[in-house]
Amino acid sequence: MNKTATYKEIFENINNITNTMHNVLPENTPAEKIHKLRLMHDLTQRQLASNLHISYSSICKYEQGHKICKDNLIKLCNYFNLDLHYFE
């Protein structure tokens, strides 16, 4: 172990690993896509819900695979600057 590594060097490596992990997450379903987007933007479920002005339980349900209502789907797309077809 390198005992002379700086705090910044250690945490840069951790950030790089985390970013790589996010890139390999599956995105086959809307639930997986929301989860991946949230993690890539370093948001908790509560933060995302607050930013979108929707309930925390809605985000939880969407990430579990529940159907996303049209209004909230539009909010998600606008927030992440995505086309509605991304979640199809």
Molecular structure report:
- The protein is mainly α.
- The protein has one domain (7-87): lambda repressor-like DNA-binding domains (434 Repressor (Amino-terminal Domain)), CATH 1.10.260.
- It is built from five helices and no strands.
- Helix 2 (30-40) crosses helix 4 (56-64) and helix 3 crosses helix 4.
- The longest helix has 17 residues, at 7-23.
Key terms for this structure?
434 Repressor (Amino-terminal Domain); 88 residues; mainly alpha
Mean pLDDT: 84
CATH hierarchy class name: Mainly Alpha
Total strands: 0
Individual helix count = 5
Please indicate the percent range of residues in DSSP E strands (runs of 2 or more): under 5%
* CATH architecture type: Orthogonal Bundle
Helix content: 55-70%
Low-confidence stretches: none
The named CATH superfamily: lambda repressor-like DNA-binding domains
Q: N-to-C SSE series? A: HHHHH
Structural shape = elongated
What structural class results from the helix and strand content?
mainly alpha
Distance between the termini: 47 Å
Gyration radius from CA atoms, angstroms: 16 Å
Largest sheet descriptor? none
Tally of individual domains: 1
